[in-house]
Amino acid sequence: MRDAFKKDEQFDCVILDPPSFVRTKSAKGGALRGYKDINLLGLKLLKDRGYLLTASCSQNISMSDFMKVLNDASGDAQCRLQIIDIRSQSSDHPILLSMPETHYLKFVVGRKISS
């Protein structure tokens, strides 16, 4: 991705599916920075009206955390991110309300709107 950015390449769609950035709650701050950095770069690689498909499979990152990361990244990229769809893991990996860590997969489809 960094090479594409250095070459000023732009894409209609960027898909981000990184491995889990955080294994423990104590590593959450660094993970949030990592998610922000990768999404910021993804947004910079997108053409206007391009689609960002981005995921977090970190159980210690909530959907609220992930949405804040995306909002912060879009602000730094000087664009708006229009949320098209929000998904989670499939029904063969059910989420137990009493165990928030079972809601580990967050997936967002967004469209870049240049400012």
Short précis:
The protein has one domain: Vaccinia Virus protein VP39 (Rossmann fold), CATH 3.40.50. It contains 3 helices and 4 strands. The protein has helices at residues 2-6, 28-45, 63-76; strands at 11-16, 46-56, 79-88, 106-114.
Features:
globular, 4 strands, 115 residues, 32% helix, alpha+beta, Rossmann fold, four-stranded mixed beta sheet, 3 helices
What does this 3D model show about the protein?
This protein is an alpha+beta fold and about 120 residues long. Helices cover about 30% and strands about 30% of the residues. It has one domain (about 1-115): Rossmann fold, CATH 3.40.50.150. The protein has a four-stranded mixed beta sheet with strand order 1-2-4-3. Strand 1 (about 10-15), helix 2 and strand 2 form a beta-alpha-beta unit.
Share in β-strands = 25-35%
> Could you report the average pLDDT, rounded to the nearest whole number?
93
**SSE-based structural type:** alpha+beta
Sketch the major β-sheet.
4 strands, mixed
Indicate the low-confidence ranges by residue numbers. Answer: none
CATH architecture: 3-Layer(aba) Sandwich
Order of helices and strands: HEHEHEE
User: How much is the radius of gyration in Å?
Assistant: 14 Å
By CATH's scheme, which homologous superfamily applies? Vaccinia Virus protein VP39
Tell me the number of structural domains.
1
DSSP summary: helix tally: 3
CATH topology: Rossmann fold
Q: How widely separated are the two ends?
A: 23 Å
